[in-house]
Amino acid sequence: MRHYSSEELRQSVEDLLKANSTKENPPAFPDLFPWLQVASANGEENSVDFTYEVKQWTSNVLGICHGGVTATLADCCMGILAAVYAGGLIPTMSMNIQYILPIPVGSTVLVRPKVIRAGKTTVNECCTILSEDGSATFAVVTGIYAASALHKGK
Question: Is residue 1 part of a domain?
Answer without folding.
Answer: no
